[in-house]
Amino acid sequence: MSSNKNYLKQFSLLPVLYFLVSCAAVQSPSGGPKDETPPELIETRPPNGTVNFKGGRVELLFSEFINANSINKAIRVLPSLTKSPELIYKGEKIIIEFPDSLVQNQTYIIVIDRSLIDEHNVKIEKGTQVAFSTGDKIDDGLISGNVISSKMASVNLWKIKNELDMISFYKRVPDYAIDATDNGNYEFRFLSPGKYKIVAVESSASGLILSPDRMVYGLPSRDFIQIEEGETVNNIQVKIPDNRGGSKMIKADWLNGNWGQISFSDNISKWVDKIPITIIQDDSSISKTSIYKDLLDGSKLHFILNDEVQDYVTIKTSGLTLQGSPIIEPGLIRIKTDSSIDTTNLSILSPTSKFILKIEADSIASLKVIFSSLVKDGSEIEPFIIKKDSTITPIDIQWESPLVARITPENNWDPNTQYRLDIIKELINPVYGQNLKDSIKTIFFKTSDYQGFGNLLISCKNEVSGLIAQVAKMEKESAHYRTVVDSSGTFIMKKIVEGNYSLFIYKDSDSNGAYSYGGIDPYNASEGFYSYPDTIKVRANWDLELDQINLGDLE
Q1: C-alpha span between 172 and 293 (Å, rounded)
Q2: Are 414 and 324 in contact (CB under 8 A)?
Q3: Beta partners for 158?
Q4: Is 18 helix (H, G, I), strand (E, B) or coil?
Q5: How would you write 265-332 as a 3-class SS string?
Q6: Percent helix, strand, coil in the chain (nearest 5)?
Q7: Of 508, 390, 385, 394, nearest to 441 (Cα)?
Q8: In whole angstroms, what is the distance from residue 299 CA to residue 508 CA?
Q9: Which of 117, 297, 407, 502 is surrounded by the fewest CB atoms within 10 Å?
Q10: Rounded to whole angstroms, how far apart are CA atoms 501 and 519?
């Protein structure tokens, strides 16, 4: 009997619990067409621009229900408070509880960035800033600019307190942090007079203390930014590198016999001949070594020892610097050698049956045959035959390395034509493992149409010395062209493959021939640059002349 009473008592509570849960759930009505309208901030209480603000509650009213999971990332108060204010979600309304202990005569900003979404996951159209002041006026200084980055970026801003802070500012939480837009633009508003430092970072590091050894960051070309009362400073450009420092030696593999491979963190193909590589045997003797680039992977190089190999070898590089800028970081890797016998068959890595050789009308391109393992060069008769239809094409053959043979026809290739490459097994002598499986390895490949080229003519309004201009192809198969701009601010880039390009001009202040990103410790500003805002379309057999470019403060 008592159990029945308990059951009824529990059951009688269900309507009450349901009522409480229903009241707590904040939801908009369901049904109707899909809502794709971005949410808007329609009102703030107290109003935007309120002065003599004492802290307490601020309400943000939006045009529709906001996704509760997006508010903590999308809404922040600047300058940063010692204790983050409490955010309270109320559907169309977000409540921010400010502490009472705010700094006097300080303008505080509520930043709403584009990660704020409504309940239908539609993003707010643009970021918004709302200002309140604990004094009798709203500060109205402004810093704006653009960030160039391969990833989503944020911009951290510090107001410098004193001379020591000018040096060690990055060791504390930034006073301001905002996300750059999709096209890299950023804007800090409501700033008080003073000196400021800017650092652009990947969005995951927004608002964090900067760790120079572990974070990728970009710096402007100024040591600091001075803001006077109501002053606006525009065009503070920042470029974030894909990584900081030089390329690192990350792995080494013993492939066969006296042959190994080193992997780096970045493309090092243009530096292979300059990278100092030392191979140290177990008995501390140094081996004579031949180094070759990997044509299929620019982050790798091959080495062949000319000495008998011991059980372990140590691969060492002292690094490579260019005009003080690190290209390759020093490194050391110890690996075990492998004396086992390779029984696999030799194969051809390139060309493949779908290979298209890009050709030009006024120069003869070479076909590069890349083997899977080392091949001895010593046969009196070369193993390669090129045919078009049934006609043999006269060719010249040069071995670039034991892995690569370069084939160049005596006369230029025909465009849009299928060719046949025959490789004769008995004339191939692999260093390790088995030979080709087939007595004659046949590969069909095609040539492209003759590549079209155009010229790019650019002039600058400013006469600035030490400028370098470079264009980068925006398509998947990237190509880069660079030239030095003369002191009059004019230059011509000739023979650019047709396609879409971006233009980047920088002042080569350290004369190292490469863009310098600067450094945080010790502080060293980056080199100034200009990024052309539009896509440059290069057409074959055309001279493209851009409108005169204003480089702004690049000098």
Answers
A1: 44
A2: no
A3: 197
A4: helix
A5: CCCCHHHCCCCCEEEEECCCCEECEEEEECCCCCCEEEEEECCCCCCEEEEEECCEEECCEEEECCEE
A6: 10, 45, 45
A7: 385
A8: 26
A9: 297
A10: 29
Residue 238 one-letter amino acid: V
Its pTM stands at 0.75
Instruction: Indicate the SS3 state at residue 383.
Output: coil
Query: Cα dist. 400→291, 367, 375, 408 in Å?
Result: 11, 12, 11, 13
Q: How far apart (Å, rounded) are the C-alpha atoms in residues 528 and 466?
A: 11
For residue 11, the SS3 value is: helix
Q: Please state the three-class secondary structure of 173-235 as a single string.
A: CCCEEEECCCCCEEEEEEECCEEEEEEEEEHHHCCCCCCCCCCCEECCCCCCEEECCCCEEEE
pLDDT band at 554 (very low <50, low <70, confident <90, very high): low
Residues paired with residue 484 on neighbouring β-strands, in sequence order: 468
Omega before 174 within 30 of 0, i.e. cis: no
For residue 369, the one-letter residue type is V
Q: Structure tokens of 433?
A: 């493992």
d(CA 444, CA 436): 17
Task: Give residues with Cβ within 8 angstroms of 452, minimum separation 6.
Answer: 497, 498, 539, 540, 541
- CA–CA dist 528, 507 (Å, integer): 6
302 forms beta bridges with 261, 292
DSSP string across 249-261 = EEEEEEEETTEEE
Tokens encoding 316:
């060492």
Largest CA distance in the chain: 107
Query: Could you give the CA distance from residue 168 to residue 507 in angstroms, rounded to a whole number?
Result: 27
Measured distance CA(392)–CA(420) in Å, rounded: 9
CA distances from 312 to 184, 338, 418, 510 (A): 49, 9, 48, 42
- What residue type is 104 in one-letter code? Q
The answer to whether residue 179 scores a pLDDT higher than 60 is yes
- Please count the residues of the chain: 555
Sheet holding 543-545, edge to edge: 490-497, 453-459, 543-545
12-26, 121-135, 235-249, 377-391: segment of lowest average pLDDT: 12-26
- For the record, the structure tokens of 194 come out as 């003073």
CB 483 within 8 A of CB 491: yes
Task: Return d(Cα 544, Cα 380) in angstroms, integer.
Answer: 50
What DSSP string describes 231-247?
-EEEEEEEE--SSSSSB
Residue 358 has pLDDT above 90, yes or no: yes
Q: How far apart are alpha carbons 44 and 516 in whole angstroms?
A: 44
Residue 533 has pLDDT above 70, yes or no: yes
